[in-house]
Amino acid sequence: MTETLLALLVGHFVGDFVLQTDRMVRIKRAPAILVLHVVLVTAVSALLLGSLDGWGLGILFLTHLAMDAVKVYLLPPSLPAFLADQAVHLAVIVALALAFPATAQAGLWGEWLTDAEMRGYAQGMAGALGVLLTLPVAGVVIGLLMEPLTRELEGDQSPTGGLPNGGRYIGWLERGLVLMLYLGGQSSAIGFVLATKSILRFGEIKDSEHRKLAEFILIGTFLSFALALAGGILTEWALGAVASP
After folding, report:
1. Residue 218: its pLDDT value, please?
2. Most buried among 106, 130, 242, 245, using CB within 10 Å?
3. From the record, what ranges are coiled-coil (predicted)?
């Protein structure tokens, strides 16, 4: 069951947070875009499972389509709507893994790979899951949590403009670095990374006129590092669980 669960989880997060572009999110109310998104999620899941099992993938497709339609057409964009959407998707994935536990083992990869290689494949998916949760998924969560503060800053003018999506990529890089340091057993170096970022980001906004912006950056930084550490702990646990015979 572990391989099936991991394949479905990675397929979901790749489809929802990597293959779904910002433009697709903006025009997702168009039925064709909504269906395309769900097709991509289902296709990635099928590829990772190495299986075209009709029942499991059919249920995955229909439930994902139904929940996304509810979110897009009935729920306002917000953190509660996002969490409800993800909770339903994850509940369906767990239910499918329990109902069809041998899907991955009976699929193409299960036939081609030895037991040891299949365990390595599962470890790879566990690592990929940790990266997905720590980088793009955490980025979306931080954006939704910070949205009320972002609105407060809309009237404030910062001294210089930033790069397009610069904050997103900085967040991905810092959380990726924290994840690598944690998994590499170098937790003490994480404090150095945090201090370095704080110095760089606060260098131009240390005057009292930009206190709001400084506090905004500080909150976002601590949120980012907290989620990165949580991702590291979860990834370490998942890798250990998969490695156990």
Report:
1. 82
2. 130
3. none
